[in-house]
Specification:
Elements (H helix, E strand, L loop, with lengths): L21 E2 L28 E4 L18 E6 L5 E7 L12 E5 L3 E3 L15 H8 L9 E5 L7 E11 L2 E14 L3 E5 L2 E3 L2 H10 L38 E9 L3 E8 L3 E8 L6 H13 L8 E5 L5 E5 L7 H8 L6 H20 L2 E2 L8 E3 L5 E3 L6 E2 L5 E2 L13 H6 L1 E2 L1 H16 L11 H9 L12 H10 L10 H9 L7 E3 L5 E3 L1
Antiparallel strand pairs: 1-9, 2-3, 2-6, 3-4, 4-5, 7-8, 8-9, 9-10, 10-11, 12-13, 13-14, 14-16, 15-16, 17-20, 18-19, 21-22, 23-24
Helix pairs in contact: 5-7, 5-10, 7-9
Length: 519
C-alpha cells in the first residue's frame, strides 16, 4: 500500500500483544506540445467523503495554476478527478491574511491528508518499514523522546510505536530505537497496558507525552519528516499532456554522458529542478522511444525514478525525470569506498532496490539492465531504480530481445545470454550481481575476465567467490539469485523482505509487563 495515494479513511486494527526490541545504531492520448495557455479551473466537485484537508509539507507553486501552501495549512479540496493533482482552496483563519497569496489552484495530492484523520497527524508515518523508522528516528535532528507511529509490517492493519532513548552500551551512552506493538480491541480501544485504554490514537499519544507509564522514555516531539514525496508530474498540465516546450527547460550542469547521450541537471519553468537526458540524433527511433517512455510514465513507485515529460518534436530528444542529486549508485559507492557507507547502509540500499523491483515484478515488467550504474541516489539515503530504456512487459513470462541488442554480459543471466530471452528471474540474477557491487563498493564483477570467458565459466557452474567483507548470509542470498534453474531463484518480494529483516533474526520483543518472545 502506498499511503500517499489514498489518505481519506481510517483502517481497522486488531492487536494481540505489546512487543518491543532494541536496535543499535501513459501516454494517455496523442502527445501535443505545450501551448502555454492557462488551463481554466474545473467546475467545483467536492469529494463525496471528506473535502477538508491538512497540508503535510510546504509546497511552492510551480506554475501560475498552482496553489502554494505551508505545512499545517487547512485546505478545501474542490475537485479530485485527477489522480495526482487536485483543485483546492486555501482556508485562512479569521482575520489572517497572506498578501499576494492566491487562494485557489492545483495541489499535489500526495502532499495533503484528510483533516482530523490519522494521516494528518505529525507523528503518523504510515507504511514506513521498521528499518526506515529507525533510520529516520536516529537522524541528528531528533532527540531522546522523539517518536512516530507507523503501520505494523508483520500484522497488516495494525500499528507500532517507535521511539528513541538513551542506553549505555559498554562504556558509552548512545541513542537507540525501541518499538512497541499497540494493542487494540474493537470494543475498547488502543492500549499498551489494559490499565490505560484509549478510544483513538490521539489521546493515546497525549497520555504518553505526559507520562512514560511503562515506556522506556516519555514521548516528546514527533520524528522530523525529512523525506518529502515527489509529485507525480511536473504540474497538472503534464499529467496527460507531457510533451513540453523545450524552451521551458534550462540546462544548468552536465552530470554525465554515455553511448546514447548526456545527462544534465536542469530547471523547468524557472521553478523546478529536474534531470534532463539528451539522446544523440539517430541513437533511437522516436516511435520506439515513445513506446518505452510510456512504460516509465505508467510505472509509479517510491523506489522507481519518475518520468515527468519529454521533448520529441526535434533533435535532440529530451527525457525529463526527477533529479537525484548524488548521481549513480556505482559512482556513489566508488567515491565512498567505505568511509561513510557500511553494512547497515549497504543492506538498506539493496532493500530499497528490491522494493522497486518487487513492484516491477507485480506489474509483470522486466528491467533487463539492473546494475549499480542504473540505480540513482537522492537526498536522505534514498535509492531508486532508473533507466527503463530496456524495460519490457512480459508476454507469458518471457521477453525475446532483438538480435542486434547488445547485452551487459557480466550482469546477464546465462539463459538470457544463450537464448536472448529475458524474464523477471533473469532480473533476479542481475540483482545478485548488484549485491556484489554494493558490498565491494562498486568493483567490477568477474574482474580480469572477458565476456566470453564469463559465459564459459558460468556454463561450468562457476560463481563469483565470496568477497572478503561479505557476511555469509548476504553471500547466500547472492547464490540463491545465481541458481542455474531460473524457477529456483527467489522472487523480488522475498528478497525485499529478507533484506528488510536482515539484522533482526534474533531480536527479542518485550511488552511493558516484562514478557519476552522471539520474533
Amino acid at each position: 500500500m502506498i499511503l500517499w495515494l489514498v489518505l481519506l479513511v481510517f483502517k481497522s486494527k486488531n492487536e494481540e500483544g505489546i512487543k518491543t526490541y532494541d536496535f543499535y545504531c501513459t501516454v494517455r492520448g496523442f502527445l501535443k506540445a505545450d501551448t502555454g495557455i492557462p488551463l481554466p479551473p474545473p467546475r467545483e466537485q467536492k469529494p463525496k467523503n471528506h473535502h477538508k484537508f491538512v497540508a503535510l509539507f510546504d509546497y511552492q507553486g510551480r506554475t501560475k495554476e498552482d496553489l502554494s501552501f505551508r505545512a499545517g495549512d487547512k485546505l478545501e479540496v474542490l475537485d479530485t478527478s485527477q489522480e495526482g493533482w487536485w483543485y483546492a482552496s486555501l482556508l485562512l483563519d479569521s482575520g489572517s491574511t497572506r498578501p499576494g497569496q492566491k487562494l485557489r489552484g492545483y495541489i499535489p495530492a500526495n502532499y495533503v491528508a484528510a483533516d482530523e484523520s490519522i494521516e494528518a497527524e505529525a507523528w503518523f508515518f504510515g507504511s514506513v518499514t521498521r528499518a526506515d523508522a529507525e533510520k529516520q528516528l536516529l537522524c541528528p535532528e531528533n532527540q531522546a523522546g522523539a517518536f512516530l507511529i507507523r503501520e505494523s509490517e508483520s500484522q497488516k492493519g495494525e500499528f507500532s510505536l517507535s521511539g528513541i532513548t538513551w542506553k549505555q552500551s559498554r562504556y558509552i551512552w548512545q541513542l537507540f530505537v525501541k518499538h512497541y506493538r499497540i494493542r487494540q480491541e474493537a470494543e475498547e480501544g488502543f492500549f499498551l497496558s489494559k490499565k490505560n485504554i484509549f478510544k483513538t490514537l490521539n489521546p493515546f499519544v497525549d497520555h504518553y507525552t505526559n507520562n512514560s507509564d511503562g515506556l522506556c522514555v516519555k514521548l516528546t516531539k514527533p520524528c522530523i519528516k525529512k523525506k518529502v514525496p515527489a509529485p507525480f508530474d511536473l504540474s497538472y498540465k503534464t499529467a496527460d499532456q507531457w510533451e513540453i516546450d523545450r524552451n521551458s527547460l534550462k540546462l544548468l550542469k552536465k552530470l554525465g554522458s554515455g553511448q546514447f547521450g548526456e545527462v544534465w541537471e536542469g530547471l523547468w519553468n524557472n521553478t523546478t529542478p529536474v534531470a534532463i537526458k539528451t539522446l544523440k540524433p539517430g541513437s533511437m527511433d522516436p516511435k520506439d522511444f515513445l513506446r518505452e517512455a510510456q512504460i516509465m510514465k505508467n510505472l509509479r513507485h517510491p523506489k522507481l525514478i519518475q518520468l515527468y515529460a519529454v521533448c520529441t518534436l526535434e533533435d535532440p530528444i529530451y527525457i525529463i525525470t526527477e533529479l537525484m542529486r548524488h548521481g549513480s549508485l556505482l559512482e556513489y559507492l566508488q567515491n565512498d569506498a567505505g568511509s561513510q557507507v557500511h553494512l547497515p547502509e549497504q543492506i538498506d540500499m539493496a532493500a530499497q532496490v528490491a522494493s522497486g523491483m518487487a513492484y516491477l515484478e507485480s506489474q509483470n515488467y522486466i528491467h533487463r539492465d539492473l546494475a549499480a550504474r542504473n540505480v540513482l541516489v537522492g537526498e536522505h539515503n534514498v535509492y531508486k531504480v532508473a533507466d527503463f530504456g530496456l524495460a519490457r512487459l512480459e508476454n507469458e513470462n518471457v521477453y525475446e530481445a532483438k538480435h542486434e541488442t547488445k547485452l551487459p554480459v557480466k550482469w546477464t543471466a546465462p539463459e538470457a545470454i544463450r537464448s536472448n530471452k529475458f524474464s523477471i528471474k533473469s532480473d533476479v540474477w542481475s540483482f545478485g550481481i548488484l549485491l556484489f557491487e554494493i558490498i565491494t563498493y562498486g568493483k567490477m564483477p568477474y574482474s580480469g575476465m572477458m565476456g566470453y570467458q564469463v559465459i564459459q565459466k558460468l556454463d561450468k557452474g562457476y560463481r563469483i567467490p565470496q568477497p572478503a567483507n561479505c557476511p555469509n548470509k548476504l553471500y547466500n542470498i547472492m547464490l540463491e539469485c545465481w541458481s542455474a534453474e531460473p524457477k529456483v531463484r527467489p522472487t523480488f518480494e522475498t528478497l525485499h523482505w529478507e533484506l528488510e529483516d536482515y539484522d533482526m533474526d534474533s531480536t527479542c520483543y518485550t511488552d511493558t509487563e516484562g514478557n519476552q518472545t522471539i520474533s
